[in-house]
Amino acid sequence: MDTIDRRIIAALQKDGRISVTDLATAVGLSPTPCARRVARLEREGIIRGFTARIDQQALGLPVSVFIWVELETQSKEAIDTFERAIRGFDRVMECHLMTGSRDILMRVVAADLSDFDRFLEERLMRVPGIRSMRSSFALRSMVDRPALPIV
């Protein structure tokens, strides 16, 4: 990746709906080479797609819960089983395999406490191989940065 690719990525992170013409102007290229670079960045998996950022509260899901999960065993099979199960849970916004005393950290959204309780009882607690879970509720978001730093 060169400097122009980095400028393209920075501009797209600020405005994913920018036209190719405006993007080309912003990075100092003509539209056709700019479009080719964007297509290459997509093919290479650097640009993984374009989405709209939706206000979680406005959508009726104001509660964010961080859940630490400890598995009974840390075998590849146990991790794969857990991963397959939670990929089907649309309330799970993020899930990370971690180092340390807990195995997994996930962020779940819910409409309210009753909604979160239903998610736990009907979905997460039915996943085999979980030893323990600890939940923490986010009071507010202090940093919610959509763009990665361009280095």
What does this protein look like?
The chain has 151 residues and is an alpha+beta fold. It has 2 domains: 3-43, Arc Repressor Mutant, subunit A (Orthogonal Bundle); 63-137, Alpha-Beta Plaits. Helix content is 36%, strand content 20%. The protein has 5 helices and 4 strands; from the N terminus they run αααβαββαβ. The chain has helices at residues 3-14, 20-27, 31-43, 76-87, 113-122, and strands at residues 63-71, 92-97, 104-110, 130-137. Strands 2-3-1-4 form a 4-stranded antiparallel sheet. Helix 1 (3-14) packs across helix 2 (20-27). Pfam families: AsnC_trans_reg, HTH_24. This is Lrp/AsnC family transcriptional regulator. Keywords: DNA-binding, Transcription, Transcription regulation. Residues 1-62 form the HTH asnC-type domain.
